């Protein structure tokens, strides 16, 4: 069994998904600790540069939500 | 005012929820309609504002556990109700409504069968934060239903058992929505059926949603279900109903949803009685169409569902309208009770290397119980440019703010990171602390190690600690690159321009003028009044011509209104707070300056090409009929038969919207004809009768007066022929199952309401129109009376077809929204806005095209003419332009590429 765990970088829109991630906390929903969240002002801020940079810096997955 | 105790001080409570976790009591969760349990110490729902817990003393056993675990010392069992007295100049009543309780009547079998639910329970079941986390299940056996029925008009449009005669306005639309969402949530091909009398999707874009639901396979069955029976012990339910064709059907469903209506709250009725405010026979506040938010008592206003059943957009419109009405009487005392904040001069940190301070919060045990806070704090100290670290029991407490301010000064910190909860709730508070000691508030970053770490990884402390370190490292990497940002403030010109002198425009202008602002009212034609000049009576029976004459007189005598008749707007320049518009009055050009603008350009009546219109003087449109009624035409004494045809030009493939007002209008006109000549035969040929809200009672009166309502379908429309000097209407009656021929003396066509499709004006203000030609508001629910472009507002038919009272309410609402800008005197921008380096700009225009707020523009003169520039006042900092710019010329302060890339490489 491999103990490898992916590292996923999440770009979350401040107004919806970031707020939803906060609510998941208030509701004490549990999920694996593999996410690292970067708050962006809108999913429109998302740029291909960020995805490429994330992979170049060793991320195993990128999640954009907005 | 009496405040009931909540036994937990909301100022001290940090919303950590420790108290609820240790509470041994289980009580029924009312918010989830009893489908779930909660503790005695609880918050109603996760989104609650403020996020502060309370104790339900009715179920509390007084064990004292919550007090023991509350490190913030917020629990106090001995709180008593407190009374307070406040001096106010106006009161707004907005207590809302209750959902009708179907338990009162055994025929709905609500209490008898567990799978018979109310629509409110269905909302909770479908909600991701609801009792089943959004999984579609039925309460009886937690099985996934395969077939669900919605029964409309439960408690509405029904006098059978002393329920309510009015239509609740919202249920048709929410049932369609629930059915669509249920299908989305279901793992099977869910069969949804909605049993209804008339489908009332009369709101903006609602008819399209109805059509979409039909395309998605939702069944709409026009029938009132006779009885609900459970089949053995399966939990399944058998419904018996009769189809329009007379066939009796017995169908089995897994679940039945009762679409319950709205009714006034008992407590609200009591409040109104105590205040001596008149209610109508349905116990809603008595209002007039002329003053839709005024109660019978001067200075007391009403909005929302206590005024009458209504949906969110109309409630929001009325809320703003009530604020305008209150603002009118309070205009002279504006800002007499406000205090100015003393500003601390800002420190200049330019050129200094970052000196970062990191404050790690334990949040009682909320973070420290999972994350190794000392370890994270020690780790933070090893990061570049970090010169100070500490941990706090509660970083957000008032005494910690003093400690942080003192530390900033003593340690010369110029960048701050707080690792605690969410910036969405706490960033402004910490930024205040920075400002209080002269540090620019943008030199700040938060690491969310509670909501997005300790709370969601409670079972994995080592990994939660690792994640916290990563989040702190990312925040430190970003904050090091942050710079002080300026918030520009600009003066708002203290005047307004309202375009359109109809009911909505005049109301808006009066609202602005009476609140003390100079207002230019622009009307294209030589006379005020717009379409109201053609209207006879409102739904409540008020004479429109009287109302209009009074309104015009008020406009003319209002000193703050400058009237521009025969005038067109030929150009608009500028932006929020600073507009300059060109006017053309009878060939003469002039220019006015204004801080805000309201678009109220109205609409007009569709001129039909169908039903032989134009070929016989007896065939008229709704407005032509009203003109005859206004003139008290003697023809009404003579006519023996009158026919109305509904949906002429509305709800058609090329004009798919419902014009909202035509059903009520025809019913009202039919009653008028009946009153003038009770022996006249009056027929209304319709597809659905949409007399929403209390207008339903008019429909009932019309039926009682003998008006005949005959339904037709869009595939089998009525036909009109003129033969031997007779006007004959041919239609198919689906209840009788046979064709009918009616020879009529009058045929009134309920024609569609069309928008004044003014593309040029839309371009002046850079505002959008939908495919039907109506203007697109900022937000369909929450921003109905304003545009996405700052400083521009919207009301009346230009927004969507609406009745006189609704136009008045929206006119007031647009004024109210505009005054929120004017009254501040200045507009302050956020520091986090986009800016363009003109040296790199290639003038491609992408930013101009993609910006939803019209912030970028091409420079017209100067060294960089032709290059794009962003107006910081209009920029909302979304960053769409930054990501779209092919030349890399745009940067977004606070979320710049380098800052985000630094976070990525630190992650």
Low-confidence stretches of chain B: none
The biggest beta sheet of chain A, please? Answer: 3 strands, parallel
**Residue share in β-strands of chain B:** 15-25%
Termini separation of chain A: 35 Å
Give the helix/strand class of chain A. Answer: alpha/beta
Oligomer: heterodimer
Unreliable spans of chain A are: none
Topology order of chain A in helix (H) and strand (E) letters: EHEHE
N-end to C-end Cα span of chain B:
52 Å
Question: Strand order within the widest sheet of chain A?
Answer: 2-1-3
Shape of chain B: globular
User: How many separate helices of chain A?
Assistant: 2
Q: Please report the total strand number of chain A as a whole number.
A: 3
Q: Number of helical segments of chain B?
A: 23
Task: Using brief descriptors, characterize the structure shown.
A: 66 residues; alpha/beta; 3 strands; B: alpha/beta; five-stranded parallel sheet; 46 strands; globular
In short:
The complex is a heterodimer of chains A (66) and B (907). With 66 residues, chain A is α/β, with parallel strands linked by helices.
Q: How would you characterize the overall build of this protein?
A:
Chain A has 66 residues and is of the alpha/beta class. Chain A has one domain (8-65). Chain A has two helices and three strands, in the order βαβαβ. Chain A has helices spanning 17-26, 48-56; strands at residues 8-13, 35-40, 61-65. Chain A has a three-stranded parallel sheet, sandwiched between helices. Chain A is flat and about 35 Å long. The N and C termini of chain A lie far apart (35 Å). Chain B is of the alpha/beta class and 907 residues long. Chain B is built from 23 helices and 46 strands. In chain B, strand 13 (227-230) and strand 14 (237-242) form a beta hairpin. Chain B is globular, with a radius of gyration of 31 Å. The two termini of chain B are 52 Å apart. The mean pLDDT of chain B is 95. Chains A and B meet through helix 1, strand 2 and helix 2 of A and helix 10, helix 11, helix 12, helix 22 and helix 23 of B.
